[in-house]
Amino acid sequence: MGSDGTPAAPRGGHSHIDAAAPALHLAQAEPASPPVPIAPAAPSGRQVPQGKAQIDLSFAPLVKQTAPAVVNVYAARTIATRSPFAGDPFFEQFFGGGGVQQRPRVERALGSGVIVDPSGLVVTNNHVVADADEVKVALSDGREFDCDVLLKDAKADLAVLKLKGGGKFPVLPIADSDALEIGDLVIAIGNPFGIGQTVTSGIVSALARTHIGTDDFGYFIQTDAAINPGNSGGALIGMQGQLVGINTAIFSRSGGSLGIGFAIPSNMVRAFVEAAKNGGRFERAYIGAGFAPVTPDIAEALGLDRPTGALVQSVTDGGPADKAGLAVGDVIMAMDGFEITDPDALGYRLATGGIGRTTHLDVLVDGRKRDIALKLLAAPEDPPRDVRDLSGQNPFSGCTVANLSPRVADELEMPQNQTGVVITKVERGSIAARLGFQPKDIVTQVNREPIDSTAALEKVLDRGARGWRFEIDRGGRRLTQVVR
Fold first, then answer.
1. Which residues contact 135 (CB under 8 A, 6 or more apart)?
2. CA dist list (Å): 288 to 48, 327, 375, 413, 421
3. Is pTM, for the whole model, over 0.85?
4. Which of 97, 231, 324, 377 has the greatest number of C-beta atoms within 10 Å?
5. Half-sphere exposure (Cβ direction) of 295: Cα atoms closer than 13 Å
6. Closest by alpha carbon to 361, among 424, 296, 295, 289?
7. How many CB atoms lie within 10 A of CB 425?
8. How do residues 224-256 score in pLDDT, each as one tens digit?
9. Do residues 186 and 244 lie in contact, with contact meaning Cβ atoms separated by under 8 Å?
């Protein structure tokens, strides 16, 4: 568990993914050297340092300009705890039912955030404020504010906070992260280990990193700017003084910085902030298709020189992909001119593409490339969700269930192509809670009868039974249980 309350994710050996944050650097002064002429700018406008004099240039003006918009985020949640003697007749005889209760435990998380709107909108990581009962934000000038959580999304690992009380707030403009190039200079600002605002520098080490071990959309900027636990939600800033990413995770053996940090691209941040401003939720475009990576064997069979692209694995009848002409076996190579290396890269482009737009795909069809126009639509609610609260003497008593549709799946941050009856809520202390049911469990069978709707599930439960045998799908695993 990271110091900001973030669980570590294993990645082979003793390596793990930790909550992100910049770390402390010590610099040593060196004797001045004679001035060196600045080399002509490269076609992109970037320049390579031509000598020590240029390397000695300071980031101080850039830090003064941008640091006031980077804040500290403090989150707390209260967890009710029960004594191990609770419910024991012997102890309750002497102490009563409430005498064995323990004091609630308070969990705290520490992170960073970035003010992106003068009205007081702050972007941070979802894992910093997830399930928090209280969130406070401290600015670099010492001011502290309570705030509301306007929007959060576990899959994107982003949250937008609204500062209470008003005031004049410094803002960090959001850059176009697609303009970044490997080797660009960046600085990271945040609050590592809670020691206070800290600045580190580095370069963009890689772009479009996927499969790094975090449980989210998986498309990151990699940087060697020192990042450590405690600065999740901190700013990754380009040389133009704009936000290019939100620091989120590190690859580490010890929990400290190894020079491999990851940031959510600013274009994803921009789309998320716009959703918060509009008062809605963050919706990912629905295209009605499932995708798989292109393996080396598949690449060889398709005549590709390397494994790249998103292989169409399934297409929903009548969905946007079907209407556009996509078919199983096609490979999406690019979207709007941006290379698609794998399904995660496609998911990122769909999430930031904007619902209602028409996008253009470069698709490999039977060995030939085709341009396909695809309409990005909001996920439909078909079938209707038909929410039902289950009760009675059965294993599902205390569950709230709904019919899965692409929209319901998106709201629950599940794959949009899943179908069936999903548990959306489990009442604490209910029969279902004691049996271990969880939100996002999909009910597939009860007493050997297939369950395809909430009405079908309720009908089976209303008939009653001496014993219950049920099967659920939990994250792709089939679990079977028998209750007498």
1. 73, 74, 75, 76, 129, 146, 147, 148, 149, 161
2. 46, 11, 11, 16, 19
3. no
4. 231
5. 3
6. 289
7. 15
8. 888 877 778 999 999 999 999 999 876 555 555
9. yes
Quote the pLDDT of residue 45: 64
What the block records as the tokens of 11 is 């990645």
- Cβ neighbors of 226 (< 8 A, separation 6 or more) are 22, 23, 24, 25, 188, 200, 202, 257, 259, 261
CB 140: neighbour CB atoms within 10 A?
Answer: 16
Quote the CA–CA distance of 97 and 89 in Å, as a whole number. Answer: 9
**Which token pair is 408?**
């319901």
Burial status of residue 148 (CB atoms within 10 A of its CB: 0-12, 13-18, 19 or more): exposed
pLDDT of residue 253: 54
Strand partners, 361: 335, 372
127 flagged as catalytic: yes
* DSSP codes, 158-223: EEEEEESS-------PBP-GGG--TT-EEEEEE-GGGS--EEEEEEEEEEEE--SS-SS---EEEE
Counting as low any pLDDT under 50, the low residues of the chain are 1-41, 85, 90-91, 98-100, 214-216
Q: Identify the active-site residue in 18, 153, 157, 342.
A: 157
Supply the pLDDT for residue 430: 93
Amino acid 401 reads V
Q: Are the beta carbons of 451 and 399 closer than 8 angstroms?
A: no
157 is catalytic: yes
Is residue 273 left, alpha or beta, with left meaning phi > 0 and alpha meaning psi from -120 to 50? alpha
Amino acid type, 158: L
Q: Could you tell me how many residues make up the chain?
A: 484
Q: Which pair of structure tokens corresponds to residue 116?
A: 């992106």
Q: Which of 3, 201, 232, 266 is catalytic?
A: 232
Instruction: Taking the CA atoms of 311, 316, 320 and 323 in sequence, report the sign of the dihedral they define.
Output: positive
Residue 286: which of 351, 220, 210 has the closest Cα? 351
Q: Report the alpha-carbon angle 168-173-178, nearest 5.
A: 165
Q: Which residue in 31, 2, 32 sits closest to 16, CA to CA?
A: 2
Using omega within 30 degrees of 0 as the cis cutoff, is the peptide bond preceding 383 cis? Answer: yes
Report the alpha-carbon distance of residue 372 to residue 296 in Å, rounded: 25
Residue for token digits 């979207």? 335
The whole-angstrom separation of Cα 180 and Cα 156 is 20
Annotation marks residue 83 as catalytic: no
Query: For the chain, what is the largest distance between any 2 Cα atoms, rounded to a whole number of angstroms?
Result: 91
Q: Residues 4, 112, 127, 344: which is the catalytic one? A: 127
